[in-house]
Automatic annotation (TrEMBL):
Cofactor: Fe(2+); Mn(2+); Zn(2+)
UniProt KW keywords: Hydrolase, Iron, Manganese, Metal-binding, mRNA processing, Nucleus, Zinc
Compositionally biased spans, kind Acidic residues: 397-406, 432-443
Region (Disordered): 386-462, 474-539
Superkingdom classification of source: Eukaryota
Protein name listed in UniProt: DBR1 enzyme
Gene name in the database record: Dbr1
Database matches in Pfam families: DBR1, Metallophos
Biased composition, class Basic and acidic residues, residue ranges: 386-396, 486-506
Annotated Gene Ontology cellular component terms: nucleus
Polar residues bias (residue ranges): 416-428
SMART domains, A to Z: DBR1
Amino acid sequence: MKVAVAGCCHGALDKMYETLELLQRRHNVRPDLLLCCGDFQAVRNEADLRCMAVPAKYRHMQTFYRYYSGEKAAPVLTVFIGGNHEASNHLQELPYGGWVAPNIYYLGYAGVVRFRGVRIGGISGIFKSHDYRKGHFECPPYNQQTIRSAYHVRNIEVFKLKQLKRPIDIFMSHDWPRSIYHYGNKNQLLKMKSFFRQEVESNTLGSPAASELLQHLKPTYWFSAHLHVKFAAFMQHQTNSKEELPKATKFLALDKCLPHRDFLQIIDVEHDPSAGDSLEYDAEWIAVLKATNSLINVTQASWNMPENNGLHAKWDYSVTEEAIKEVLEELNHNLKIPCNFTLTAACYDPSKPQKKVEPVHTINPQTTEFCAQFGLTDINDRIQQSKEEGSVRGEHEEEEEEEEMDSTGSAEEPSEYNTDNSGLSSINPDEIMLDEEGGDEDLSTCSVDPSPDHPPDFSASFSDIRIMPDSMAVSSDDAMDSTNEELEKSGVSKQVEEKSVNERPLKRIGGNENGNSGIKKIKRRNQAIYAAEDEDKTE
């Protein structure tokens, strides 16, 4: 089965799908599935734009709304995770995943699905230690803080994923697992992105939560985006016993979706020929959701997940084969995810712009149906109930609530990640500047720059399509040759078009050669993503 993998989409669905069509015309390659590693930007209207954490001048409608309205249809099944530049109000409607448009499926805060027997998992958002132990409490209309914290990874999602025992074929995260750069061509990475050097050398670049999942899940493939650079690695995992077979993960980070960018990869994945063409629920994941449902927290109270430290009556929430069998029986062994997409918001109309429309907190019928079917808590319904009961509690009430949580989780233990190194201390000129304190962020206005009704033909500019280039098939600096050999054996396809990354000049939008002199320290890896589209025209 051929799987296409894309980096940050940034709402440019037309460009992404046109690239796939170009791939088919030029090379007779038709992917069966498209995966997108975050910053998808499922923006339906102006209200969604205001819920996206970027400065107002970077809020552009792009083309997703055409697929949401039904004007256009996704030509290939598309599965994506959330990043840190999303219409958070839209994705929040689907905490357990669901269809954002026909044939376009969101994995939720965390999720696992199956397609043709291939098991695909993912976790949305980026890591920030100060929000990691909180519940999913945010809801629109967001303020300057919650518009950012809404996309921060939470420990409960990592905990759920760590209960999985069965093998994962493909896993997606938006930010990179911390330390993964030590298993690839680190010198080439720093040559392309020299401003990463400090974080790489101090081993603080990337997400520690994703790194923990990588060590636990040991998927065959792990795909990420976020840093806007192509990078491959090969990680050989240690075995826990002599009987356990050795496992390895092929990691690939993708560039962003823009003309002349190497943002798309095609890989060959072994699949079950007898499996159908429908996206399916994963029975073990559903069983884990049911087992961990009591841990749901929709408050700002910080607490750790249960662990074997003498403070918790139960800490193992992994599921038995019997529990998985019960899920299958509930579904009559029909795991097909229903195509129950419904419109939950007005779609953008270029002829009738509505720049002052207010975002509202919506409960999506897909989530209601999913929770009712499996006996799960509808997080958004719980948030609304909390608001109705008076969600702003005094400090005394919050302390009492935290004490009640001690039966399953602890609010008193220190976080397993007590430092927050997810922000660059150096400057990444390829990302959006987003100051933590708010700065130029204006939630009261949005700048709508609609796509033209007849977008131009991108076939000329989207010529740099790669199918897992050999130049990026690398391992640790001490084992380059052996890793190239391993990646060749893994079924990775050959390169469609030869073009060395070294032929592309690096562009900077500010700062000196070192990228950190005379510039205010950036607290978030968000600086000039969209501005790069203008840069590319000069490259």
